Amino acid sequence: MSDNHRYPLSSSTTSDNRRNISMPRVAFFLAFLPSLLFNIATMHSSLSKSVDETAYPDYPIREYQQSQQSSASYTNNNHPNPSTTATKLLPTAATHPRGPAPYGCGVVLFFHIPSTGGNSIANWFRKYASPRNGNITFYQTWTRSIGKDGNFLPNLQNVQDAFIEGMNDHVENLDSGEWRSGQYHIVQPPLNSTEDLWYKWRATVESQGCQMINAIMLRDPLNHAMSLYKILNRKNGTREEWMDYLEQPSGAGKWATMLDFFLYNINGPTGRNPYNATKEEKVRRGIELLQRHFDVVSLGDHTDFMNQVLNYTGWKHLDMPHTNVGKKTLEFTKKEVEKLYKLLVKNGDIDFVDAVKQRYNGHLSYLSDV
């Protein structure tokens, strides 16, 4: 055979040759291995630290107020109104780290939307004011917004200012082991444009080593709107006024839908949707405010509401009274019900409660894997 004939190499020979060829690469890799391992370890440590620090950040009072001042418009009462285009969601009140419940001291503030069974809840809180039930101070300052003549009452701003001043005092100087409660109701500072107050009250309570528990009761929007018809005779209203004002995106009527009251309360002729926000903006803002500030969100379930509050506070169980129940039969035509439902869809109330059901009640969660 000629010398230039190529014979197949044995397996050992092939392995040796490959080893010889790859040795420079291995040496190069080994030379840089310590540095590579150090960088990976450093990266892992940095990532771990980042996750640990951001999983439960401090409640961002200062950060929020700074961003608010740079992008806010102001109402005629000098309270900032956060821009409707801001989409940054801060940590929810319910997930803010504060140790296991029940907590030793704090303030429970009940956001009372009319015709949601809130009178029963307010009277339940009042029962705890008795010395034998805990001696828990209950605070409220509110008034009706519309008189029997159908016109808005004067000096409503004074009522708002009095409520703010009273709440500022109510969250101060908590003793060790002390709980207090309060009610936000009609003619109070609109949550949409005075969110800074809610941050301040929570920060004040937490700075004393206690907890702020904000609670709200919601219900089906159509049932809520229909039940409010019973108050029209106290406001010199008509059946036409009761629904027709919802035809426009803004402008006050004799009553407020659940979403409108949550955002704007009832504070005068320009109180409803004063910034002419769209339905989508109102729903987004409503869910944003719930997530930021409320620890207890219940949908028509007073037992659930009560149990959540007791879990946070550790108060002894007291039965909730059933009060302020309308006994007069309300009658509506099929056409009226259909019209009202369409107006509530247009106003955002139906979408708002649907979102609440999904976020807080697990509504349609069985479809999550579809």
Describe the structure.
The protein has helices at 11-55, 61-71, 118-127, 156-170, 195-206, 221-227, 239-244, 258-264, 279-293, 302-313, 334-347, 349-360, and strands spanning 73-74, 80-81, 106-111, 137-139, 179-184, 211-218, 296-299. By secondary structure, the chain is of the alpha/beta class. The chain has a domain at 105-362: P-loop containing nucleotide triphosphate hydrolases (Rossmann fold, 3-Layer(aba) Sandwich), CATH 3.40.50.300. The strands form two sheets. A five-stranded parallel sheet has the order 4-5-3-6-7, sandwiched between helices. Strands 1-2 form a two-stranded antiparallel sheet. Strand 4 (137-139), helix 4 and strand 5 (179-184) form a beta-alpha-beta unit. Helix 6 packs across helix 11. It starts with 10 loop residues before the first helix and ends in a 10-residue tail after the last helix.
> How many distinct beta strands?
7
Major β-sheet annotation: 5 strands, parallel
Radius of gyration: 30 Å
Q: Which geometry do the CA atoms define? A: globular
* Helix/sheet category: alpha/beta
Strand percent estimate = 5-15%
CATH superfamily of the domain at 105-362: P-loop containing nucleotide triphosphate hydrolases
What is the helix/strand order? HHEEEHEHEHEHHHHEHHH
Uncertain residue segments: 1-91
How does CATH name the architecture of the domain at 105-362? 3-Layer(aba) Sandwich
Could you give the distance between the termini?
71 Å
The CATH topology annotation of the domain at 105-362 reads as Rossmann fold
Overall pLDDT metric: 77
Q: Residue share in helices?
A: 40-55%
Number of helical runs? 12
**Strand adjacency order, main sheet:** 4-5-3-6-7
CATH class placement of the domain at 105-362: Alpha Beta
Organism: Skeletonema marinoi
Biased composition (Low complexity): 84-95
Protein name: Sulfotransferase domain-containing protein
Region (Disordered): 66-95
